[in-house]
Amino acid sequence: MNEEQEKQIKHSILSGNWRVRSSLDKDQMKAVIDEVTRWLHLAEEGDWMTLPGIAGFRAFEVQLVLRQALPDIWTVLRDQAVIVKKVSKQHRWYLQNTSCDRESCWREQILLSARGFSVFFQMLVKARKPLVGHNMMMDLLHLHEKFFRPLPESYQQFKRNIHGLFPVLVDTKNVTKDIWKELNFPRVSNLSEVYDVLDSDLNPTRNSGPVIVHASKCEKYAETKCPHEAAYDAFLCGSVLLKVAHLLLWRVHGAGSAPEPSFPRYLDVLAPYVNQVNLIRAGVPKINFSGPDYPSIRPPILILSVRRWPGVTEQQVYREFQSLCKFDVRRLTRSQFLLLTNKFKDARSVLKEYRGHPSLQVSLFRYWRHSPDVQCLLRVCSIVTAWALLAFLLGRPGP
């Protein structure tokens, strides 16, 4: 939960206005209360019943709700179960004021449990350590929205917030993309493939880099690939960071004079990439969280005008160009589509191949020329101008 949600829940819990969090929880809680109420109607003072299979956070929640709903019972947690005992109101008052198992302590534990991953998020923020990710823009958006505050309207405010939370960001996607072509490594499309290349003989520093030792419960990752498993992805990302940093250190100092590797030295060679997070097909190639963004170097947007192809869809347009290159296709009007790519050579290739095509006309997209909104505005203005001119001519007095 983010800060605003935590404040709301904390106020509700500590003020005694606890509300069960989901419709499923409400149904389960109602069933428990009904069961205890039926038993309570027939029970004598001192009798007790057991609610089995309730432990952890749910046990605190069940006890809190039961004590609030039923004034003549007392509850105790014992061996993965909640014990409910019928007591007099006087005895209940005595237990409430003398027992070390007080509701105020439960409320704090319920709040702690409800915070969930937010506790770990706050630990990350307070640690002020480098935060490493691969193509991590979506991760940062989720962290901000779910564990800090709702996303702001201002892009610059978002950058300031993230930089305040995590002053050192390292996006391994940005680092590897920048040096991949220089080292003539084969093309890769995901984190696992990046790791495989850096862990192969193609990497000249493969045998001199840092040794990565797995924890006892993660030794399987040394032999088995487990993509999209959190611990495995973290291992890949951290390994790629160390291998790339070691490779950069080797390139700076050379094989013979390279200093003893250490994490501070790795951070020094990674300094040009710090706080720069990769973006895909956006207005800028990457976000600089500690300063102004770099100018855009994206290929121009192309517009496809279709003739004599009624009912054409985005999927059909995509398949038309698939053999030549890959585009993102977005419909603009009934017969026009926007084509977006991240490679200049693809844009040039399509413009060349489809020059003079009888039914598919590809050209550079110009906002003031091709935007439907602009065209609509121009039509309205032309109509208004024509009517104004006509009214002026008809309204002129005769000679």
UniProtKB/TrEMBL annotation:
Highest taxon above the source species: Eukaryota
Entries under SUPFAM superfamilies matching the protein: Ribonuclease H-like
GO CC entries: endoplasmic reticulum; nucleus
Database matches in InterPro entries: CAF1_poly(A)_ribonucleases, RNase_CAF1, RNaseH-like_sf, RNaseH_sf
Pfam families linked: CAF1 (PF04857)
GO molecular function: 3'-5'-RNA exonuclease activity; RNA binding
GO BP, sorted A to Z: nuclear-transcribed mRNA poly(A) tail shortening; priRNA 3'-end processing; siRNA 3'-end processing
Family: Belongs to the CAF1 family.
Protein name in the entry: PARN like, ribonuclease domain containing 1
Organism, scientific name: Pipistrellus kuhlii
